Amino acid sequence: MALPLIATCFAVLGGLLYAIPVLISAGFLAKVPSGENAVALVVPFFSSILAGICLLLANFCLVAAGKWDELPKPGWITSGTIFLLGLAAFGAFFAWLEHFPAWTKPLSLFCGALMPLATAGFMVYAAFHQPQENQTALTLLRIPILIASFMGLLFAVWGVQSYLSRVRANEKREWEAYQAREKENARVAALSPLERLEEKYASFSPNSPLWPYLVDLVLESDPACRALTVSRCLSVPNWSDQLKSCLQSDTPLYQRGALQLVNQLASEQLQADWAESIAQSVRITQAQMAKDDNWLTTPQDLNPKPLAHVQDLLAAAQRFNPNPGMESALQSLQIQLESQAESPEQQAAKLALAAVLGQPRERH
């Protein structure tokens, strides 16, 4: 009596587990999960696998209890049928997941939901009836179960074929993308630095902000490229206001680009209200040095050449000195440099600052 009870427990559990992906899939039809919620797809996936295992265990218990004795080769037939039925349920879920044609939906409902549940119910029936009675009941279910099992096999084969086709298509796309990248890289490598920069700027929007050009001004050393970058800076809408904002930026790379633009402009292009922004640049640099003792000697991603940054800063300040706010900021920077640990960079910065403070400057 123990084996039929165990078989009943496994069959009921298998039926419930098969019902879970059916109900969840119905909910997914209304709203397919995406992003972080896509993890919910593992629930019907593993439910189908566990349900198939439960029905196989129930089948083994029924074979051991002699409930299939009226069938020829009962173990092989029933085990094979249940295994194919498990493939049917998994194949049905896979078919739904891969968005196969619409005509697969009724078949997947039949193969992946109704027949597994019917089989679980039949196993419960078989556990408490005589083999001869089971034979009659199985005759009624034989045709739909075999159809469902066969369709399950087709779904599984279809799924494997679809997966392999997708893998081949992905490999082909990746190879074509790789060839396209290599071709593009070879074309770009054949261009001169100025041509590459012109092509880059051609892709920019007319309303592009100033800071990308300022970064290029820092990174470019070719005179023709720098001249092109300066001309593009002057074509940016409200470039003067954006320049003042970048001069007061806490990011050294943006600040240095703005300083270099000031140094590249002719005297008649300078604007008097930039003086306060450059004085603020001096104060920001002094504060960053005070916060980090290695600021002047340690290159960083956003400050690749600290000493060159200070030199550009002093060159820009020199163009607006004498100026009360500028003098005060430069003196604070001088005090900060005096307190820095002695190094070649510190000595070079002190000499450059002394030159700025010790000679008369043009007025604006």
**Count, helices:** 14
Number of strands: 0
Separation of the first and last Cα atoms: 105 Å
Main sheet, how many strands, which sense, barrel? none
Average pLDDT over all residues: 80
Helix/strand-derived category reads mainly alpha
Strand content: under 5%
Helix content: over 70%
Q: Give the overall silhouette.
A: elongated
Oligomer: single chain
Number of domains: 2
Order of helices and strands: HHHHHHHHHHHHHH
Which stretches are low in confidence, meaning pLDDT under 50 for 5 or more residues running?
359-364
Protein architecture, described:
There is one protein chain. With 364 residues, this protein is mainly α. It folds into 2 domains: 175 residues, no CATH class; 163 residues, no CATH class. The protein contains 14 helices and no strands. Helix 1 packs antiparallel against helix 2, helix 2 runs parallel beside helix 4 and helix 3 packs antiparallel against helix 4. The longest helix has 59 residues. The protein starts with a helix and ends in a 7-residue tail after the last helix. The C terminus is likely disordered.
